Amino acid sequence: MVTGRSVPGNRWDLLDGVNPDEPPTVSVIVVHYRQQAELDRTLAALNRQTHPAARTEVIVVDDGSPEPPRVPAGVRLLRQADEGFRAAAARNLGAAAATGDVLCFLDADTVPEPSYLTRMARLPALAPEAVVVGRRRHAALAGLPVDAPVERAGPAAELPEPQWLRDGYRNTRDLLDADDRAYRYVISAALACSRWFFERVGGFDEQFRAYGGEDWEWAYRAWLGGAILAHAPDAVAWHDGPDWAGRELDDPARRARKDNETLLLADVIGVAGSRGHGLRSANPDIVVRLGAAPSPAAAFVCVDSVLAALPAAVVCVPDEFIGLFTADQRVTKAGAAPLARVVVDLPAAIRVDSIADALREAVSAVGIGILGAVLLGRAVRIDSARARSRRATWGKDLFETRVDATDITALDADPGLAGYLGGWS
């Protein structure tokens, strides 16, 4: 059973200045591969945290290093076979073994300042749907004593931060104004969420077997699952070395790896700006559910006008009409809707072209800010996955519903099919 509180939309700022009654139990999951010196530095920094040691669990997950890493007493070590770059599987392995109420993910070469855990765990301890990303800064730490205080060593050896990431946090006011593409600002090297929410969303997608991508896929899935995205700029962890995106800019192999990551993301994240412009993704952006139609002709007009207005949608129709649409794979049988950003419910068949602009505007707007659903007359409900997930958790609406008094008439059994197709009615 979920405990804690939630907020409207993404309004984590309503919890500013609020602290948990007691510090939460935190499981820190550190992914490692052949980086003993970096791991030593990170574990030393975790030993200096202001978060109570008695309420902190540290789990190192080794991704198949030839020799197991050395860890001090009190740190759990888990290992998995070397089957390529499997950071996603390593994080899942650590999360499955964790006992803390809050999960905090770090990479072995990402060294937290002393207040890091306290600041990262605050929001997930208050609001279980909170997903917090810290500030990952960069420094040349190699060669320094592993126990050198990183809050001083980092600034003295600082390297540039990615400007696009800093701009993203600034433009979204530290993700307070997050939208459907804000997943791009979530990085798993400095990430925290409640264990309850991680289990509800599901773990990282283990098909990602190269550097990057698995955190964005997970963050987008979390967003659809009702996540409250927040950036904690005062929760600083120092990455040893430059940002990956700033290295080897002319390396064809690096560009190929980035392309492979982008192709995987385009297939699983259906939102505009991530999917192809014409190609469909495996996960649809929009699902439209037709409840009933008085005739095959009415069903045809309804589904055709829906897809003319929303060509990236998948339309679910009653079984008796599925045979009309065998040539178009965007039309499926009614049933459990696949994961989608928006669900549009049509209780009865309507002709959508007269409300196409209003429908497209509503589909773009729901789920962002505090708008969760739009009602167009009595015939159309546009509902965001975020609002639906939050409603299922708390038993009440935590997003607003906008009602547009649009006059929409259901189609009768004779919708004038020939005139609709020919353009004269």
Please tell me about this protein's structure.
α1 (36-46) links the parallel β1 and β2. This protein has 2 domains: 12-247, Spore Coat Polysaccharide Biosynthesis Protein SpsA, Chain A, CATH 3.90.550.10; 286-422, no CATH class. It is built from 12 helices and 16 strands. The termini are far apart. The protein is an alpha/beta fold and 425 residues long. Belongs to the glycosyltransferase 2 family. GO terms for molecular function: glycosyltransferase activity.
Question: Main traits of this protein?
Answer:
16 strands, Spore Coat Polysaccharide Biosynthesis Protein SpsA, Chain A, 21% strand, 29% helix, 425 residues, alpha/beta, nine-stranded mixed sheet
Radius of gyration: 24 Å
Number of strands: 16
Written as H for each helix and E for each strand, in order along the chain, the element string is EHEEHEEHEHEHEHHEHEHEEEHEEHEH
Distance between the termini: 54 Å
The CATH topology of the largest domain comes to Spore Coat Polysaccharide Biosynthesis Protein SpsA, Chain A
Question: Beta-strand percentage?
Answer: 15-25%
Global shape: elongated
Total domains: 2
CATH C-level category of the largest domain: Alpha Beta
Range of helix content? 25-40%
CATH architecture of the largest domain: Alpha-Beta Complex
The CATH superfamily of the largest domain is Spore Coat Polysaccharide Biosynthesis Protein SpsA, Chain A
Largest sheet: 9 strands, mixed
- The overall pLDDT average reads 92
Number of helices: 12
Secondary-structure class: alpha/beta
